[in-house]
Amino acid sequence: MLWHKGLCTVREVHEEIAKTKDSGYTTTLKLMQIMHEKGLVERNTSAKTHVYKALVTRKDAQKSALDKILNTVFTGSTADLVIQALGTHRASQSEIEAIKNYLNQFENPEK
């Protein structure tokens, strides 16, 4: 949500999370505080309600999370990660085509 909206209060982030996941406000608050401590978000405390802003792009956050999962859960095996992802979650036809096109770039680098 921070990536889309820019500036958000904990309440706004919590309300968005609550649409799809049963989670308490204090859990959201704690996660936002941890993200601030790790330098992932910036917090403006000049008003009574603290306002947060993402300091890391979505792409960088995804890359960092994926690197951790790849190295800890799949012991560095990209194939195992992809096989697990595709075996557990159904990809749409357009996603399958995008994956095929991406893999073709590696097989035929001159194209």
TrEMBL record:
Signal peptide: none
Protein name (record): Transcriptional regulator
UniProt cross-references to Pfam families, sorted A to Z: Penicillinase_R
Keyword terms, alphabetized: DNA-binding, Transcription, Transcription regulation
GO molecular function: DNA binding
SUPFAM superfamilies given in the database record: Winged helix' DNA-binding domain
Transmembrane segments: none
GO biological process, one term: negative regulation of DNA-templated transcription
Keyword set includes DNA-binding: yes
Lineage: Bacteria, Pseudomonadati, Bacteroidota, Sphingobacteriia, Sphingobacteriales
Similarity comment: family membership: Belongs to the BlaI transcriptional regulatory family.
